[in-house]
Amino acid sequence: MVTHVSAGTPGDERGALLSFLEAERGGIRRALIGLTPEQATSRPSASELSLAGLLKHVAETEQAWIARAKGEPPAVERDESTWHECFALVGDESVESQLAYWEKVAAETEAFIRSVPSLDETFALPEAPWFPRERVSMRWVALHLIRETARHAGHADIIRESLDGATAFELVARAQEG
């Protein structure tokens, strides 16, 4: 299993935000414990979501938001025609490669959030109908990543329980064992 990033001291605001984000990442990582590649990519409901697809989506989304906050383009640009690709493994992508990528992204997120002089600093968003305003703060980005990851961690809980009945409590215990 992938090791997780140290969020530092949770007593300060940045540490608290990073700790909450890491806790939600853990929910998604734990949902993948002990699954075969076939189980991880399966869709056990009417939804198009799979655990592997959720993993790829949250890693890609986190990287994109931090890149935007840095004034850089995302590693992968998505639009309406390619949006579905961020929810499915393609080519030689695997759960293991996506977990490793997300670990790298998480480390970059922590380093960036810790490096900005103030969480009140803002940056301009690209024009898109789904963005809430023209400028957002670094604090907003951290909170948005927590919300996005938590939302998908909930999806992951439901998908995992649908696959084999494993609940979040059981998965936490398995993670602590190994």
Characterise the protein shown here.
Mean pLDDT is 90; it is low at 1-5. The chain has one domain (13-177): dinb family like domain (Four Helix Bundle (Hemerythrin (Met), subunit A)), CATH 1.20.120.450. It has helices spanning 13-31, 37-41, 51-70, 95-115, 138-164, 168-177, and strands at 122-124, 135-137. The radius of gyration is 16 Å and the shape is globular. The chain is 57% helix and 3% strand. It has 6 helices and 2 strands, in the order ααααββαα. α1 runs antiparallel to α4 (95-115) and α1 (13-31) packs parallel to α5. With 178 residues, it is mostly helical. It starts with 12 loop residues before the first helix and ends with a helix. It has a two-stranded antiparallel ribbon. It comes from Streptomyces olivochromogenes. InterPro entries: DinB/YfiT-like, MST-like. Pfam families: MST. This is Mini-circle protein.
CATH class bucket: Mainly Alpha
Alpha carbon gyration radius: 16 Å
Quote the beta fraction. under 5%
- CATH architecture designation: Up-down Bundle
Mean pLDDT across residues? 90
Question: How do the strands line up in the largest sheet?
Answer: 1-2
Protein name: Mini-circle protein
InterPro entries: DinB/YfiT-like, MST-like
Pfam families: MST
Organism: Streptomyces olivochromogenes
